[in-house]
Amino acid sequence: xxxxxxxxxxxxxxxxxxxxxxxxxxxxxxxxxxxxxxxxxxxxxxxxxxxxxxxxxxxxxxxxxxxxxxxxxxxxxxxxxxxxxxxxxxxxxxxxxxxxxxxxxxxxxxxxxxxxxxxxxxxxxxxxxxxxxxxxxxxxxxxxxxxxxxxxxxxxxxxxxxxxxxxxxxxxxxxxxxxxxxxxxxxxxxxxxxxxxxxxxxxxxxxxxxxxxxxxxxxxxxxxxxxxxxxxxxxxxxxxxx
Length: 242
Prior knowledge:
Layout: H1 2-21, E1 28-37, H2 43-52, E2 62-70, H3 73-78, E3 81-87, H4 90-100, E4 109-111, E5 115-123, E6 132-142, H5 148-164, E7 170-178, E8 188-194, H6 197-208, E9 224-226, E10 230-239
Antiparallel strand pairs: 1-3, 1-4, 1-5, 2-3, 2-10, 5-7, 6-8, 6-9, 6-10, 7-8
């Protein structure tokens, strides 16, 4: 009887662990919009004007501006930057944006249509990113037979493998939320954010020099496929209390 009870408890524990591994964190939501800088202005001027704007309790929790360094030719031919706003939930995004009303025209930029993505922290990384960060992004698709939760767990293991070797950066997953093309060509984006540019470039060099973060991790079968990384410089504009 004791053996049967023990076996039952172990089975229930393993089942709960398995369930936890199949559930992604709720995360936040981010509103992303591509923008062009009006003639006669520089990115630095737009950034400084944005930082000087008064923000109230209905402002996004975090606002950043991303400037492309190495991205697709298509992006750089059409846009100069991305304006990114973080909210704790879809409900808060709607409530705050309705409360603020239309505040367009406060910056010398022209923007396209906004999309909203779900943002999940996979690995927190070392320290908190400051006012200026460097970011790698990859567009990815989940392999047949795998799930986003499987991918989340694999990315987390890989990030921890890098961290043990001294490359410890914030790692996130972005997933489609609202807006954007009806026939989306990607399932998720991997973002790796370093407090300074050397962090993300050193990570690329680790792979070039032979480091394999997946060695010894689970199955060797691929569970996702990704494009080549794009490199961005991000400037913090506003950081609220929530």
